[in-house]
Target: ABC transporter
Amino acid sequence: MGVMSANDSMPPITPLDASAAVSIRGLFKQFENKIAVNGLALDIPVGSFYGLVGPNGAGKTTTLNMVTGLLVPDGGAAMILGHDVWRDVNTVKRMIGVMPQPSQIFDRLTGLQLLVYAGMLRGMKRAEAVKRANDLLKAFDLEASANVIVADYSAGMTKKICLASAMIHSPRVLVLDEPFESVDPVSSANLRDILIEYAATGGTVIVSSHVMSLVEKMCTHVAVINRGQVCAAGTVEQVAAGEDLEERFLQLVGGRHQAAQLDWLDGGAQ
Ligand SMILES: Nc1ncnc2c1ncn2[C@@H]1O[C@H](COP(=O)(O)OP(=O)(O)OP(=O)(O)O)[C@@H](O)[C@H]1O
Model:
């Protein structure tokens, strides 16, 4: 093997894939002196259930915010179903459903009102929005709380109403940041079924999650993100490479250290 020149270490830049649900090249974002996303490239096929995993601060949320047109990148390009995200942001926003953070919703509305509002905001007629809102409340086990204001929901219920509000306009791509956090096992199994069926019928789901067992169980594909770059991506089987996905994740991102470093903790002994 010859000596590597600077050019050898730079991967060739392949063009954006217009047939992908999401195609990203050279995405870059810096906050003051912190590089959050560092030349990230990824293709997410249509109909896939794609997991984004990575340690805290790896750049997952920053990437998703840029790809969904919520945050302007410092460099790079992204396409959703063939449309350039920043040149054509309104078209892109019509095609995607982004789960809002609980702090971003109008929580003085009831669950039903919030969903109808989300539907009408996307241009739906009130009657259709009400019908779909009721279907979603039922699917998400929230029927009994339809007329309760969202501020009085538990954390898991709030998460579910946020997810429902991202789905009401039947988007072609769903982008979900930590959708299962605080959601109980029964609800999360129901949500999983809804999302798997949505992907099986041609929708694309992108989830960021720290729960490796869930990613392994429900995702068709996974990308491991570390320090603002993709360090492995492909089908779950390809990335796991014959091992448990969590084990593989730990190998890829490193960072395990000895618990003994906290010897003062000492089981709480005085
Ligand atoms: N608005 C901001 N201002 C300054 N730094 C930021 C901002 N947003 C993110 N960062 C920094 O960018 C890096 C990537 O953050 P990001 O939220 O994208 O990570 P993440 O992979 O989603 O992490 P987590 O798994 O903990 O949610 C972190 O170091 C974070 O501190």
